Amino acid sequence: MMDACSWRLPAISLCLALMLGGTLLPHIARAENIASVRLGEDLFAAGSAVSIRDRVSGDALLAGGTVDSRSEITGDAAVAGGDVTLGGRIGGDLYAAGGQLTIDAQIGHNARIAGGRVQTSADARIDGGATIGGGTLRLNGTFGRYLNVAGRSVTLGKRVLGDVLVHARELRLKPGTQIEGRLTYHTPGPVTLPADATVRGGMYHVPTAGTARSGELAGNWRGEGLGWVWLMGLFLVGLLIALALPAFAARTSATIAANPWAALGLGFVALICIPATAIVLLITIVGIPLALMLMMLYFVALLAGYVVGALFLAERALLLLGRSTASGMGLQVLVFALVLVALALVAFVPLLGGLVRLAVLLLGLGAIALAVFHTRKKPAETEP
Q1: Interatomic CA distance for residues 75 and 88, integer angstroms
Q2: Would you say 124 and 141 are in contact if contact means Cβ atoms under 8 Å apart?
Q3: Alpha helices in the chain, H assignment, sequence order
Q4: 132, 114 in Cβ contact below 8 A?
Q5: pLDDT tens-digit profile of 295-339?
Q6: DSSP letter at 46?
Q7: pLDDT digits over 332-362, tens only?
Q8: Cβ(304)–Cβ(238) under 8 Å?
Q9: Over the Cα atoms of the chain, what is R_g?
């Protein structure tokens, strides 16, 4: 499908990205849209360009167009952005996603990384296990317990202390690479081991048809039947929100248009913090019922957030066509359906498509949180 639509899918992705960009770019130069808040020992920062240099004694959640962190973070770090650079030391786990990621950090535990282009320097070190997915992966440095990789083009270098699992279209081992465990790789053809490279646990090749499985890590559904059922479900949820809750739909769209970076940052915080809170509740045993209820609400919020983001894009598309939201319901429904189809198609574009869909989800999720917050705040403000 990608070959048959090689120019159409990137074009659709670009159009959706431009609609999102038309919302975000006017706010980039405004300093008030760059927020940094410390809650106890934790740091939350979101904006067009986020730069962290001071020590963070707890966890750090960072989101922005450009994210540059070279500080010491004693807890976990969750990072999302277009261009992400991480240095310094992270004492806990790392969760990172972006268009381009450069990792030069010392990570005390595990790392989960996804991006269009991911590069780890020779000085980078991940003491725990690492799972990395993306388009182009250039992985140097030292990896600990295991390394799981999925991408189109993968290059491995330096040292891995455990087993390595690779799904790729192209795999190359750099001279001097040392793998202490077993290397299992799923590629179209076998890989030649450089003369001075060592794989102590042996190399096991699983032939493939030549397509990388990075789309599975990104959560792209490719089953045609289930795909259409899912698309129809999103369409029905959107209709329910637009028809049964028109004031809520209008309020969330206005929230995204007025405060896109706040919606994007809060959406990212909700995406990470809600499941983390549920895990903490599960550990307490007593909080298991509340944790299960929270996760149910979380999945509902993810679905609603994606639909709200798509409704906002449909509204932007109407404005670009010279129409308003006061246009006939039939036209609004048609444009919303086309936006959902476009978002489904861009899933096949490795880099831009994934970032566009993530942005739609985060914008919608953050807009819901902001709309609920303002709704609860108004009655309190009107009390004498």
Answers
A1: 13
A2: yes
A3: 8-28, 214-217, 224-244, 246-258, 260-283, 288-320, 329-345, 352-382
A4: yes
A5: 888 888 888 888 888 888 888 877 777 766 555 666 777 778 888
A6: E
A7: 777 788 888 888 777 666 666 677 788 888 8
A8: no
A9: 22
Retrieve residue 139's tokens. Answer: 């992985």
| The CA-based dihedral angle spanning residues 42, 45, 51, 53, taken in that order and rounded to the nearest 10 degrees | -20
The domain segmentation of the chain, as residue ranges, is 47-216, 220-377
- Ranges 183-197, 254-268, 341-355, 362-376: which has the least confidence: 341-355
Instruction: Using alpha carbons, select from 26, 30, 56 the residue that is nearest to residue 44.
Output: 56
Q: Which amino acid is at 27?
A: H
Check if the beta carbon of residue 148 is closer than 8 Å to that of residue 168. Answer: no
Q: CA–CA separation, 78 vs 63, rounded Å? A: 8
CB atoms within 10 A of CB 169: 18
Instruction: Using DSSP, state whether 322 is helix, strand or coil.
Output: coil
SS3 category, 161 = coil
- Read off the tokens for 93: 């786990």
Query: Is the pTM for the entire model greater than 0.90?
Result: no
